Amino acid sequence: MTYKTDIEIAQACEKKNIREIAATAGIDEKYLEQYGNYKAKIDFSFLKDHADKPDGKLILVTAITPTPAGEGKTTTSVGLADGMRKIGTNTVVALREPSLGPVFGIKGGAAGGGYAQVVPMEDINLHFTGDFHAIGAANNLLAAMLDNHIQQGNALGIDPKQITWKRAVDMNDRQLRHIIDGIGGKLQGVPREDGFEITVASEIMAIFCLASDIMDLKARLARIIVGYTYDGKPVTAHDLKAEGAMAALLKDALKPNLVQTLEGTPALVHGGPFANIAHGCNSVTATRMALKLADYTVTEAGFAADLGAEKFLDIKCRMEGLTPSAVVIVATVRALKYHGGVPKADLNNENLEALEKGLPNLLQHVSNIRDVFGLPCVVAINAFPTDTKAELDLVEKKCNELGVNVALSEVWAKGGEGGIALAKEVVRLCEEPNNFRQSYELDLSIEEKLEAICKRIYHADGVELTNAAKKQAKQLTDLGFAGMPICMAKTQYSFSDDPTLLGAPKGFTVTVRNLKVSAGAGFIVALTGDIMTMPGLPKVPAAEKIDVDENGVITGLF
């Protein structure tokens, strides 16, 4: 059987004018700023004018630990929203914007797949409305003002060896991880070691996604710490008088983007931090708007529940006072067999023994959501044609033993129709008792919070800080930052900090090698293992297959 590619399906879709989608969502045209016929931004005044309207229910979609077999979290999110509208609920979906790094690298785009996509798929996966360009520009403006201040006399006494602010570009480019710049003579700047982060890992992206409005954005930008003086005192963007110009670059980008699914469900796609090295959730403004627009908002958090969901629940929900009504954990039989030791090439063959070996990964994520965070959840099995009844029955049996239902999701092949069973279970769960709580309290020390995450969420024996990290923890505590939540930067491929430990490993310790404060975002970043804030391209980048014809039609994008 020949299947259409994602881009072929998206290009064949008859999209509705964005004004019609806005009307479906209940957005008056006075709030719309159109970017062509199929994209628009929604003005902030919408939130002010609807402040008294009660919020709808919030549904979080997360997943098992990712594998090369793929899990389909965004696809499930989109298909679930379409399915919920098919059963008569007023639902919108709120997603992150894709980064160009994965689009041209190995992971591909992030607009869903099959018959559960947001469109225009090409625009969303490429330049979209220019939000990421604005974020990169604001990041690099601060970098330029920082180096210019040093060049022009360094009145603040900034130590060039203690600069923590990096430049940013939205591309996987390992060549830029560690560089030396400012060479070429006295007039060319002060020579120093420098580096780039991918835009989605930058603190500007985190601030962009956590800011509630323009004034909050500006206040957060002002608090960014760019480095330290020779006396060890932090230097902020406010000290450099940079926050006003940075906010000016970001003022339009901060407005959420409205698009649609293939079935015409309103979709807010806005912000896009990585969940392995940042907090991995869409913007607060988009989530808040979605909750005012609909009775149900479906949103996602990046990578698995130990990363994106943990940060969504411990950071975003804590900061914004949000309480999810239900959680969907996406899994595939193929991915669970991979966790059970089956090579990717053999995943299409029935293997109940390997499936049983891989199931603890799913069950640990389920247990964390239910027992640590106190939230009702359902397991969504993203269906593949090679799944056998015996395999599906085994997954259902093991989940039922924990008191969790399983719903087969066929949204990739059938769109919203394939998400009806999942939609009905989600609506049911939203009425279940909710005992939501965070996995740690903010008044714990930095070390205690790290230990809580590692033991309670990763099921590690404990956490070990390098000598450098211990010094950083003391410095951050002395500076008054110990009360912030923790944003773990960890491999997405394992509960541990070792990507080769699949399934639900035991008997390991997590090593924290670096701690840094993102004072504007409002959290401390803990880097573990070999995690880097600038990825590299694979041996055969996806970019090699992407092309455009004489009519401007793009091919090869997935």
Offer a few descriptive terms.
558 residues, alpha/beta, twelve-stranded mixed β-sheet, 25 strands, globular
Q: Indicate the percent of residues in helices.
A: 25-40%
pLDDT < 50 runs, ≥5 residues: none
Using only C-alpha atoms, the radius of gyration works out to: 23 Å
The helix count comes to: 19
Residue share in β-strands = 15-25%
Largest sheet: 12 strands, mixed
How would you describe the shape? Answer: globular
Total strand segments: 25
What is the first-to-last residue Cα distance?
19 Å
Q: Which structural class do you get from the secondary structure elements?
A: alpha/beta
Summed over residues and divided by their number, the pLDDT gives a mean of 94
Structure, briefly:
With 558 residues, the protein is α/β, with parallel strands linked by helices. The model has no long low-confidence stretch (mean pLDDT 94).
Notes on the protein architecture:
Helix content is 35%, strand content 19%. It is built from 19 helices and 25 strands. A hairpin with a 4-residue loop joins β12 and β13. α4 packs across α17, α9 packs across α10 and α13 crosses α14. The radius of gyration is 23 Å and the shape is globular. The model has no long low-confidence stretch (mean pLDDT 94).
Write the layout of secondary structure elements.
Layout: H1 6-12, H2 18-25, E1 32-34, E2 40-42, H3 45-49, E3 57-63, H4 73-86, E4 91-95, H5 100-104, E5 112-113, E6 116-119, H6 121-125, H7 131-151, E7 158-163, E8 167-169, E9 179-181, E10 192-194, E11 196-198, H8 203-210, H9 214-223, E12 225-229, E13 234-236, H10 243-250, E14 257-261, E15 266-269, H11 284-293, E16 296-300, H12 305-320, E17 326-331, H13 333-339, H14 352-372, E18 377-382, H15 389-401, E19 406-409, H16 411-414, H17 420-429, H18 446-457, E20 462-465, H19 467-478, E21 486-489, E22 509-518, E23 523-528, E24 547-548, E25 554-555
Parallel strand pairs: 3-16, 3-17, 4-15, 4-16, 8-11, 17-18, 18-19, 20-22, 21-23
Antiparallel strand pairs: 1-2, 2-14, 5-6, 6-14, 7-12, 9-10, 12-13, 14-15, 22-23, 24-25
Helix pairs in contact: 4-17, 7-8, 7-10, 9-10, 13-14, 14-15
